């Protein structure tokens, strides 16, 4: 699979009833018929618990007498189908507001359809708006994308890209001809150069003016009554392009109380300048003084811990099941267990596809994370490659095996991740002006998930600010009521706050859960 963007899932079309499935089977497999996005959300995301954690982390990060002690506006960066943002709004539709940002327009369309679906407690669907960055359309300002023309937007983007490429080729040809000319004083040359410089300077001025207006509208919206803003604002945009310049008729986007970058999102940034650029954007767009950035970065070693013999047996058993093998050359060659140092290159015939493509990495370590009940029951597997110490990057992919027929949704998401240390992230946050940086950590549930546990009783961590006081009737008590039983609570652990004075050290033999919280500048 050639991955164009690590945040865009592989598309698995549903085979029509009675049609021939893969490998010429008369009946499609469960994997071919399953709603892949629904399985992913069920396996990977727990939005109600996440929203409880975010609200609690924000509350505990505030000073006494804070002018905004409880968060109202959440922005979910790299949101995909924005399930956390939608859950945040659904908890109190009259009070809460949420925003979601992603580069995947189709996932945002799914979020929009869900958010506009009636049937909530008050019988009213929340108001939702989908904005598209000017980089995907025409001009500098964002525009509202109507439901019936959303797919046309992608076509326009492709057309605009082709026009830009043609324009660049034309400019390069003109420059080449000018260099080959014996004199720069050929007829019209000065006028042409002046015009190009003028147009380039004009474009820069327009972009700067648009950004200043966007920041101004963000600041003004901070003090306004949020009743005028949509309950859910979805933004088809690169997170580095925020805030979006808006046309005058569009309601300003409120400065968020919380910016949440979950699911190891910081690992999308492979270089420090890009990480700094993202954190600086967050520092600019958060609500001043009280806003919080909350991230859950990948922490600790990768899951590359099983023996070669164990993994070989696992891959051999699964290779006969439909959908497990991804193509010629699968499974890839693993790294050696015996070599203290090993240089590895993908075979020439396999060195294709995007950076997260399985053919560009050695065989990963398959780990069963948990099980679910959808579509007759499934097992959620994660595959981690060994860490490349030359780049501090590794490959991670998410796959789902359906127990009914052993079929696979293979590599539904594939990531080329940069591993950032907690210290690197903290230093970068301080560099851009974020304040009061705190770290909360927890041991993950055993990733070699037992087959005999209930589907809904995985060891889910409690909120980072939970204690053993059962008399708390605040927001933590409210979230504790969301589908939890005494049995599911019994084995849970709490996040622990790492002391900020360097009096504590943190060691781990495998990956662990963590939140890093930072306050916005004054």
Automatic annotation (TrEMBL):
Residue ranges, annotated region (Disordered): 1-29, 114-133, 153-190, 203-225, 446-495
UniProt organism field: Acaromyces ingoldii
InterPro entries linked: SAM-dependent_MTases_sf (IPR029063)
Biased composition (Polar residues): 14-26
Coiled coil ranges: none
Name recorded for this polypeptide: S-adenosyl-L-methionine-dependent methyltransferase
UniProt feature, compositional bias: Acidic residues: 165-174, 448-458, 466-476
Domain of life where this protein originates: Eukaryota
Bias kind Basic and acidic residues: ranges: 153-164, 203-216, 484-495
